[in-house]
Amino acid sequence: MLSDEGVKVTKLDSSVSFSPEVAEGTSFGADDVAAIQQAILADQDPTQILEATAAGSANVGASNQGFVVVNYDYDKVQAEAGFDTTFNDNLALDEEDPRSSALQTAPLIVNEAPVAQAKIDNAREGGEIVSGKVTATDADGDTLTYKLVDQAIPAGLTFNEDGSYTFDPTHDVYNSLKEGETTDVQVTYQVDDGHGGKDTQTLTITITGTNDVADITPSADGTDQGAVKEDVTLTTGGKLEVSDVDAGEAVFAPQSKVAGEHGTFSIDAEGNWTYELDNNDPAVQALKEGETLPAETFEVKSADGSASHPITVTITGTNDVADITPSADGADQGAVKEDVTLTTGGKLEVSDVDAGEAVFAPQSKVAGEHGTFSIDAEGNWTYELDNNDPAVQALKEGE
């Protein structure tokens, strides 16, 4: 409503009337009628630039008589909330009219929408909970509220009405990140000033992966152990399993023919391992039957090196065949003569790769048909003729 005090917004009920009391004392003449008609021709609203009571009466005999009652009670003139308006840029202001001056200088209060700020934060997979707060500015100083819009809340994120948030990076969904690998969790939030002003922006949390520890186990009982035997079983093997929540790292670091003390070890990415005994190793061949060498142990690792597991191989010996030869030509032969040469002897040599077994099994005075035989551990042997044997004494010369 236009008044001498400026522009005022007045709450109206369903009916507004200009009554006779309003028009009382108001002069109205032909000039007023002409002004109304001129305003209408100029596409202006006489009730805005002239006195409302100057609109005249519908039931008068002359144009300068009476007054009009304006009733705003018809449905077409009842404004609803949010109705569209049109500015009339042909509205003329009379500089001599103090009410026009008030119209020019009266403040027009407009709600300024808040301005949201993008927020970036960081977290480390499996690390500590991250906390923060999104922010917005508001020229009107209104109390602002925040909420997430247009999406499901990501795992580990808690978002509050005051814009504060927490993020828990220990959630299982982020465990697949490798060491140094990153992924972004991004949400859209809305800020509201409570007076119709709103704005949206994003909250982005970058998660950096860590190296989760793998776990290595035998695929079955005993498959992380093996056994070989000299001259008999020269290879052994088994299979291991590895688990790792980091994507692509549930594999082994391959090894090929890694030299041990008495053989070589290999393992592929799937955990299949083998051990090959060096059967020509003197230490292996020196083993006696059932004797063992210190176990061979090999360390296997997961691809990322976060887990390891030992492989143990036992090496057992066999009884290698010895070799016996005369120490010299004829040293394995002898001769005795009745009543003349009653003893004879010689020396033998023995070789055996089995440690401590290159010796003879001693024999002492083993009875023969006509005498006794003896041999010591070094291979020295003797034969003693039983000269009293009737068969010996019955021999003729040279027989």
UniProtKB/TrEMBL annotation:
Matches recorded under InterPro entries: Cadherin-like_dom (IPR002126), Cadherin-like_sf (IPR015919), Ig-like_fold (IPR013783), LapA-like_RM (IPR047777), RapA2_cadherin-like (IPR040853), VCBS_dom (IPR010221)
Highest taxon, organism lineage: Bacteria
GO cellular component: membrane
MF terms (GO), sorted A to Z: calcium ion binding
SUPFAM superfamilies documented for this protein: Cadherin-like (SSF49313)
Matches recorded under PROSITE patterns: CADHERIN_2 (PS50268)
GO BP, sorted A to Z: homophilic cell adhesion via plasma membrane adhesion molecules
Annotated protein name in UniProt: Cadherin domain-containing protein
Originating species: Photobacterium lipolyticum
